[in-house]
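Shipment paperwork, digital attachment
Item: protein structure file
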Amino acid sequence: MPPTWKPTPFIKLSIAIHALAVIVLLFASAYWMWAIGAVLINQLILTLAGLLPRTKLIGANLSRLPAAAIQRREVVLSIDDGPDPEVTPRVLDLLDAAGAKASFFCIGRYAEQYPALCREIVARGHSVENHGDSHSWFFAAFGFWRMRADISAAQKKLAEICSRPPQFFRPTAGLRNPLLDPILARLSLKLASWTRRPFDTYEGNPQLVFQRLIDDLAPGDILLLHDGHAARTPTGEPVILAVLPELLKTIAQLRLNPVTLPAALR
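Attachment content:
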């Protein structure tokens, strides 16, 4: 049985504001401007919150690992937008060489094209998580039914391909709206964002990407990288492949343990 959706305090306040506005319009119409104004301000805040990938204002959001994982000096490498037939196998080899584990947020339609690659990710001890089916840049503007259909389609494909259902979801660029939280509760998924984001889909300078990831790197951090849609270095190499060897070396020097998201929350 899926967990019950529990709205955040701000969502409860938003529901109350809308209900009160209806009451004012029905029984105290002289104050209609105040009612409409309150609703518009509330809607603006909700919209802005959806543009902040790490906020918890409109729903639970894992942006940092819990205390138990921090005590174990764990970090998570979360890798988005794959599987990519050119990049993902090389990423897996680099992770194997360092004895590191990662969580791959895979796009459903790509997983359907390259199912063997998704199975290889799991076979090597990593986790495959849900990054939506379409990876639409308009995901945050989806209505309830379209959003649920998109996430459900990816969940079904990834569960069948990998023989285990994803436990976490991440929307395109982390952008969302208040409809996402109840959908994830219904699908038994948790929203996961990140602690560190190097913008490696358009930044092709490996040193800059690397520096954004390792500045004050600490236990509990969730790092975001991309095997799909990765920016290219001046020599044409996907930037994740240029950055990952030195990043994994630094993680080892700091005595940090790179694990999957499910392992960190065990």
